[in-house]
Write a structure and sequence with these properties.
By secondary structure, this protein is mainly alpha-helical. The protein is built from 14 helices and no strands. Its main location: membrane.
Length: 306
């Protein structure tokens, strides 16, 4: 039971990284923009967050720095694809490659750096409950922030006028423009907000999840977060559920090794990516279902006045 509780706790922790990044990408795609640069943004944000925490000792400032780094890179991406009408997919891939190379170059001096000792987190009384305490109530506050962000995004998208406008821009930017909404500015704000969340996820990785800096430490989490939006059919609650599912698959490799299961470590390492491919293949078998849930204008440029 204790081992199972620890596996659940580790799955929630790992899933939080994917959930926060995927929610950011979901905001982008609800506005009609596909950003393939999540991996690069998360790497730069991870470096920014780690550098700030190593310098100041403040995790909060590290999170802020990561969000700022993600937002700035996303703003550059947004200006290119929204105003200069560059190809969204090519620009996103370029951003991902840039982020990987730049973070590796700029982070050389931080490879051996160490962060201050972190405090242990636990919710009073609830953390003392057998099994549930270890599984659910001894996490870093950011785990609960991920759940709150999901609930907040559901409320924003489906219960507010601003959320309705955002979804209308993703469904039919021409109609939104005809009604007088500034489609380009709305898309840019969505891209920046999504980049900030990807940055927060990246900073969480380097300052809390694995408190160190090494080149390429995001290790494909940006791509899995991107796949999660399709897996979840662009629904925030399903994003959170899918993130925890993939987090569990990621942690399962360590759990199996811990209980002595004789499986090659390379096979266990590839499980999260194998699960991603399998899920996307299964979803792709029903393209009509995807079309019903997918924002109609996703990935399509918008030219005012055309």
């Amino acid at each position: 039971m204790e081992s199972t509780a620890l596996l659940i706790a580790a799955s929630l922790n790992a899933g939080t990284v994917l959930a926060i990044a995927a929610l950011g990408l979901l905001i982008n795609e609800k506005a009609g923009i596909v950003n393939l640069g999540a991996e690069g943004m998360m790497l730069c944000a991870a470096l920014a967050g780690f550098a700030v925490v190593a310098t100041t000792g403040s995790t909060a400032l590290g999170f802020a720095a990561g969000m700022a780094a993600g937002a700035v890179l996303a703003a550059i991406f947004g200006l290119l694809v929204i105003w200069l009408n560059t190809n969204q997919y090519a620009t996103g891939l370029a951003l991902s490659l840039f982020g990987g190379g730049f973070s590796a170059f700029a982070g050389i001096n931080y490879v051996q750096a160490k962060l201050p000792e972190q405090a242990q987190h636990a919710i009073p009384l609830l953390s003392d409950i057998p099994f549930l305490g270890n599984a659910l109530f001894k996490h870093h506050p950011m785990v609960y922030v991920g759940v709150a962000l999901t609930l907040g995004l559901i409320w924003f998208l489906y219960r507010t006028r601003a959320g309705l406008v955002l979804r209308s821009v993703g469904e039919s930017p021409e109609s939104a423009h005809a009604l007088g909404y500034p489609v380009r500015r709305i898309r840019l704000m969505a891209v920046v907000a999504g980049g900030a969340l990807c940055g927060l996820a990246g900073a969480y990785v380097s300052t809390v999840y694995t408190p160190l800096w090494v080149e390429g430490m995001i290790a494909g989490k940006g791509w899995i977060a991107l796949a999660l939006t399709t897996f979840a059919t662009w629904r925030p609650a399903r994003v959170l559920l899918g993130a925890y599912l993939f987090g569990g698959v990621t942690m399962l490799q360590f759990h199996l090794q811990g209980i002595g299961v004789n499986v090659p470590s390379q096979f266990l390492t590839m499980l999260p990516y194998l699960a991603t491919v399998v899920v996307l293949v299964l979803i792709s078998r029903n393209p009509a279902w995807i079309r019903v849930n997918m924002p109609t204008s996703i990935g399509k440029p918008f030219y005012p006045g055309s």
